[in-house]
Queue: 3 jobs
Job 1
Amino acid sequence: MKKHVVSLLVIGAAVVTAAPAVGAAPACQPGQTPGAAPLYCVPASTPETATAASRGTSKALSKLKLSQLQAKQRVSLPVVFAAPGTLTVTVSARLGGRTVVIGRATATSTNAGAATVKLVLSKAGRAALKQHQGALTLSVSATFKPADGGVTTKATSKTKLR
């Protein structure tokens, strides 16, 4: 009886060593992460780029006064790319019961690092800003699409201009 138990353990050990262990990561290429099952790899998503861009853009916009933004047609904003890809930033505001797109910016980076996006104010956005008086809450939405084909991520933050 011991012989059968020993032979089953050896066969079981051989099977376990040949198959990947549950939860073990396969050998993925750089820029990829293990998928849900340990049999394939997927491109790594970088949600930190969209989140950082949204927060960074909000912070840069909050340093401006409403009167300064009203006088400009475009605003340069600093962003940091965590990975190569395309970043799209949309700034909108709720005015008179409707949402008005104040401006949009798109930047593409071939490597990770700091960059600048130019927020171009829309005609409707400029008109809405000129008519508005008092404090204004802006919603900043950032969408990041990695160059390696990873998952597109989106983040939103708000800032108030006075």
Job 2
Amino acid sequence: MALAFAALAVLALAVAGGCSQTAMIFPAPAQGREPAYPENLVRTRDATFLYFQGAKVVAYFHGNGEDLADSVPMVSLLRSLRAESGVDAGRVVLLGQSLGAGVATEMAKRGLGARMVLVSPFTSVADMARRMVPFFPASWVRHRFDTQSKAAAIGLPVLIVHGTEDEVVPFAMGEQLARSFPRAQLVPIPGGQHNDLLAMHAIPMREALSPFLKF
């Protein structure tokens, strides 16, 4: 009970502080690092991203607290898969990991992709908050990232990859989303946690992604 009241107090302060919610959901990395592929770095007024020219474009949306330097394992995996796939030009795959899954889902809702891959996705920020405080009001959430509410309207093929031992986002949320998207398939990664899928489970990740990206 004391823990619940403490969590409620922290969340209430975050809501009252306004910008505190933003800092919690979008924490800046402690120290920015140069991406491993500086020659592929593209900067615009509003964003910085890595671009690799090829027959297929995979738009990768990373999780919170990460920067482009943290995307090295995913970029390496996707580059190797792209080289093998040889798919038609102009096809876009939206790939979102953790918090980035919410961004990828919004892009899919806007019709900006042909397929979508969600890695360790949560249903919504409000649902995550309720894991700490069961009666947390959804109206208090400033950045909702509500993938669950958008799922039914997204008709493109969706692949959901989720570790069965995810200690941050429950595996059950991946299962729920797989039931909510009309054309989704769920690939459980046995023993996989939230941040070790590429480091410790690269082979099953590759086996999940490879056939899905060949279309």
Job 3
Amino acid sequence: MNPYTDHTTEPEDFALQATIAPREDPTEITLCITAEKGTAVKVDGAFLTMHEHASGTCVGAMVYRFTDEDTKIFKIKALNQHRKKEIEAAATCRVSSPALKFIDYSEAANSKNIVITGVVKDVHDRMPRLEVNGETLNVSTYTGAWEHKVVLNDEVTKLNFVATNKFGRATVVPKIIRLVLDAPVVEVDPLPINAGETSLLLTGAVRDKNDPSPTLTVNGTKVHVSNFSGKWKHEIELEDGLNFIDMVATNSFGKSTTETRAIQFGVSTPVLTVTEIILNKLKRTATISGTVKDQTDKQPVVKINGDVVSVSTFSGNWEKEVILYEATNTFNIVATNKLGKSATVTKFVDAQF
């Protein structure tokens, strides 16, 4: 579309015509005057050089440059012999601003590192300048494509895109990006519903696309997480009954995820067996021996009438020599594990010396 308009007053008594032609530079136009042969022409008081043609006409042209968007009225005076004529021609300058298009852009981002892409084009300038918050971006000369990498450190980031052509016409597009970060992902390897031992090894991994080093706690205790794989492991001690395990992962942005597991642990009592009692009448003693086993404790404590008995760590065998009195001797044998569960066996020994 021609950005200029022109107007020519109809000639009175000899041919005089003004036409306006656009130029490549939208701030410039060419004013062309055509008149009868031998006509002298002034434009806005200044003589215009006219060139005669064999067709019996003369033609003159001048270039006018606008300093701003405006409408210029040219006053044209012509003299042919004793004939005078005046006409006017109007030209209007309209320079468009660059067209700025966004291709990859979203007002909400779930990652602090994003890339915004787009295209900037201008009908009058093959290389318009594009700036974002004062930073000049590289724009393809051929396609007008551009990209801008942004690190979002705030919850709301304001970006001001300004595309300017060589004529100073600018397109301003403000953008707002809201950072909506995801919380870490806590992975927990499969666990039994029921545990048969007091110690339980927990393993898993923590993933976070915005934080390479999220923190992890298990029931309030900080656990080491590998910076490379995100894997972790932690051993806990179970209590009798239902145990709840809370694993909380938190990233550097304060976002956290909690995974909870429930483990049932039933504490069994020791298995206490008295295998034999051997009397020694000469010494007036008896040797009581037996075994003790426990699922949750490798070293349960065995006592006979309150006295601690030595127990083999490997076999669980035990024995103790006790003093006999001439009467019925009562021996209470108690085995207790580390969780407080106990088993009792009572034996009676009649001694007559």
